[in-house]
Amino acid sequence: MNALYSLAYISKNTIKSDRDVIEAEIKSILASAHKNNPALNVTGALLYSGGYFCQVIEGPEEVLEELFENIQLDSRHGQVTVLHFEPIEKRSFGEWAMAFAGIEDEMRFDAAGILDSKDKIKAEEAGRNLVSTLDRLVTQHQGVLKNA
């Protein structure tokens, strides 16, 4: 069995348009993930926050490497920065092919500090913070959807 890994990253949105177009692109990203991730044994969560994609993906190491290569080549993503890529015991987002944590106008993380930092420990800390934040937001978001 392949070892299970978690990859957390942030990237700057390069879609130059209004909120409706950006929301449509996010829906497209989520639809693609819902279609493709189950067969790849990939789970994860996505947050769009203050002009940045904040995402955690979980799955076999080789699959994540290939998937992340595609993300880096995707014209919607700029300044792609890995926060962590590490083995994990269990998934944080095992229930979702790609959970959606929402769209926020204000960036909740210090994106500039993360992007400019060469400090690996700071990036890993930001990655853990991203995982816990996405976990909390996904739970809230799913609760809102269930009660709607």
UniProtKB/TrEMBL annotation:
Domain BLUF, first and last residues per copy: 4-99
One example GO MF annotation: FAD binding
UniProt superkingdom: Bacteria
Pfam family of the protein (one): BLUF
SMART domains reported in the protein's UniProt record: BLUF
Database matches in SUPFAM superfamilies: Acylphosphatase/BLUF domain-like
PROSITE patterns in alphabetical order: BLUF (PS50925)
The protein, known as: BLUF domain-containing protein
Taxonomic placement: Bacteria, Pseudomonadati, Pseudomonadota, Gammaproteobacteria, Pseudomonadales
